[in-house]
Amino acid sequence: MSKRNDAVRVYDIPAYKQIFPYIMPKRTDSLVYQNMVLDLSGTVRFIKQHKSPEGRSYRVFEVFLAAILRTMALRPELNRFVSNYQYWQRNELSLNFVVKEDYTDEAPEHSMPIYFKANMTLDEISAIINTAITKQREPASSNFTDQAILFFLKFPRPIIRLIVGTARMLDRNGKAPKALRDADGLHTSLFVSNMGSIGLGGGSPHHHLYEWGTTSVFVTMGVLKRTRFLTDGKTATRDTMEVGFTVDERITDGFYFTKSIKLFQELLQNPELLLERPLLPPPPLDKKTYKKSLKAR
Fold first, then answer.
1. Which CATH number does the domain housing residue 187 bear?
2. Is 120 a member of any domain?
3. Which are the contacts of 202, defined by CB distance < 8 A and separation ≥ 6?
4. Backbone angles phi, psi at 178, to 5 degrees
5. Planar angle of CA 126, 131, 135, nearest 5 degrees
6. Domain range spanning residue 245?
7. Which residues are bridge partners to 229 per DSSP?
8. Structurally, how many domains does the chain consist of?
9. Is residue 2 part of a domain?
10. pLDDT tens-digit profile of 39-54?
11. Percent of the chain scored above 90 by pLDDT?
12. pLDDT tens across 85-94, in order?
């Protein structure tokens, strides 16, 4: 299989990484966890000084998501996944996050994948995010994911197992329709969980990756808080957030991931960069070009 309807095959993979899917065939075999305290002082300052084109204040959540999407656009190895022992790069940037209808125990949660273009600016990304949040807070009967799940749960259990098995096979071979990928929300570039929005203290817990789907990166956001520190004998403050990353280590190496985190931090410190369109890196080599490059070596 060399074609999928949601990604392109990546051929230019170092030899040592090509063996990874065989010795670590599952995402649960290749999870890497990283906790970091990020400095969001620049983000807070930017929010105080800038307004959206509609005249409203930006939210930390919007800037955070725009920064991580820009990072993935400029560092495309983060937007890859392993399927059927092969490496793939998505055709689009996408993310998924959960929204509760309201902050009560009984309120249902909704999620849906949201798609972006790699060259989008903060204003374009924030507009899409706000529209998605509004839709996700609609009653369960209006949410596409909930409707799809409730529809299939009406079937007998053997039929449900057959449907899920068929969907898994289609997905493994890159033939799953977009409607199916939209329904489960686990075929996105990353999944973000904003634990700070519910006031969870004590850091940001790590979340596992799922064997279902293709999502290779999970990010958990902690509480934004003011942190005191000493500099030149004087007390100063920063706005910080503890963030947890869970990554499928097969998609990239530690050096690439570390440089990506540094870029992410730079964008959070200077969100003005997100107002401009980025200069994107070239797409991965196709099979023909890759073979030519091998001969040239």
1. 3.30.559.10
2. yes
3. none
4. -60, -35
5. 145
6. 7-296
7. 236
8. 1
9. no
10. 999 999 999 999 888 8
11. 51
12. 999 999 999 9
